[in-house]
Structure formats: C-alpha cells, structure tokens
From TrEMBL:
Underlying gene: trpF
Enzyme category, top tier: isomerase
GO MF, any single term: phosphoribosylanthranilate isomerase activity
Substrates-to-products reaction catalysed: N-(5-phospho-beta-D-ribosyl)anthranilate = 1-(2-carboxyphenylamino)-1-deoxy-D-ribulose 5-phosphate
EC number of the protein: 5.3.1.24
Record-given protein name: N-(5'-phosphoribosyl)anthranilate isomerase
Family recorded in the similarity comment: Belongs to the TrpF family.
Span of domain N-(5'phosphoribosyl) anthranilate isomerase (PRAI): 9-216
GO biological process, one term: L-tryptophan biosynthetic process
Pathway listed: Amino-acid biosynthesis; L-tryptophan biosynthesis; L-tryptophan from chorismate: step 3/5
Domain of life the protein comes from: Bacteria
Keywords, alphabetical: Amino-acid biosynthesis, Aromatic amino acid biosynthesis, Isomerase, Tryptophan biosynthesis
Length: 226
C-alpha cells in the first residue's frame, strides 16, 4: 500500500495540529506543508513549522514540503531542519535542480502541471518522462497559472487514464479532487495515489474534518490500481 514515498493519500496544505489529527484519524498517509508565501496555505517561518512536522511524524504521517521556485540551498535547509520525508517541486524548477536534491538522497516529487484541455498520451509522456527517468515521483496537477495549484481545476481524467494504461510506474493525481469527484477520477485516471488541498476545505484555506474523512473513506473504498 505504499508508493516510493510511502503514501496513497496526501492531504496538502495543513496548517494546524487539528488538521494533522483529522488526516491521521481518517487514514491519510501523508500531509503537505506549504512553503510558498503567496499561498493561503503558507506556513510562515516560526516555531509552528517545527511543531507541525514533529506532530505529523508522531502520528505516523509522512511530511512533504511543497516549494515553488525556492532556491535549492534554502529548500535543502528547510528539508533538513524539519526532517521532511520528501520535497515537492511545484514551480518552474529545472531538471538539474531536482537532480541536485536526488544526489543528496532527498526524495523529490515533481508536480507536472497539465492544461485542463484534453491531451494525447504522447503529450503527457513527453512532459513526464524526463522527470520520471531521473528518479522523481510524479504528481499530475492542473495548471493554475500563477497560483501554482490548490485552486480546484480539474484535469481530463479519461485522457490521463489512456496515458496511465502504458505508464509502468506509480504516480499521483491532484486537481479538482473532492469527496464527490474522487471516485470517478480514480476510475477514469487510474492513479496509484491522490493528493487534495482545496477539495477538503470549507472555506478556502481552512481544512474541514468531515470533508477529510469523506475523502479518505472514498479513497480507501476503491480497489488499488497497482
């Protein structure tokens, strides 16, 4: 029941200890800690970062740091200080940036931002292949422009499913996932894991315990795709 990074269900953008508890109680495997200042889910540089990371580990949750165009030395410092399980590159980072982190034995998840319009499997593969071959975990998300994710835009799940049929590796899906849409998204796109932020919030930026429970319940009720 694990990917290379140890999870099938990731609750991204947690900001409070109660978010962590809700995720753990619902059976999530990982949480995302957002280090992109413009985001409504941003964690400022204070003691709360360390408290959340430590509490997540105590609850058995993997911690993934979400970064957008962060200088690699700064990213590495945060990852070391918080003992992150992995880092997620969600901006315009280069393959060389990812390779520097991988060479230091830091697991890297690359967010591939896809347009919401239908794409041919070959188009998706062209975007994914260099990162996957370098050793990055792959997360497919909807291109949200300057927001860099977390706004609920939905991908062409059936088109992704056609690509996934020939993808011989585990990958994760994000973008437009909610407790209501998750079932059809998994059936059409066939991801190994799923990642949600806005889909378990009410209002935006505030995690909702009931939505987290419903999302995880749906995720765990469906047969694994691997």
């Amino acid at each position: 029941m694990t990917t290379a990074f140890g999870f099938r269900v990731k609750i991204c953008g947690v900001r409070k200890l109660s978010d962590l508890q809700a995720a753990a109680d619902a059976g999530a495997d990982a949480v995302g800690l957002n280090f992109h200042p413009p985001s409504v889910r941003y964690l400022p540089e204070d003691k709360r970062r360390g408290e959340l990371a430590e509490a997540a580990r105590e609850l058995g949750l993997r911690t993934v740091g979400v970064f957008v165009n962060e200088p690699i030395p700064s990213l590495r410092r945060v990852a070391d200080e918080l003992q992150l399980s992995a880092v997620q590159l969600h901006g315009d980072e280069s393959l060389d940036d990812a390779q520097r982190l991988l060479d230091e034995s830091l697991p890297v998840i690359r967010a591939i931002r896809l347009p919401t319009d239908p794409l041919a499997p070959s188009d998706i593969d062209h975007r994914v292949a260099p990162w996957q071959q370098a050793g990055c975990g792959i997360l497919l998300d909807a291109d949200a422009g300057g927001s860099f994710g977390g706004v609920g835009h939905r991908l062409d799940w059936s088109g992704i499913g056609r690509w996934a049929a020939d993808a011989p590796f585990r990958w994760m899906l994000a973008g437009g996932l909610t407790p209501e849409t998750l079932g059809i998204a998994i059936k059409q796109a066939c991801p190994f894991g799923v990642d949600v932020a806005s889909g378990v919030e009410q209002p935006r930026g505030i995690k909702n315990k009931a939505l987290i429970e419903a999302f995880c319940r749906t995720a765990h009720s469906l047969p694994p795709t691997d």
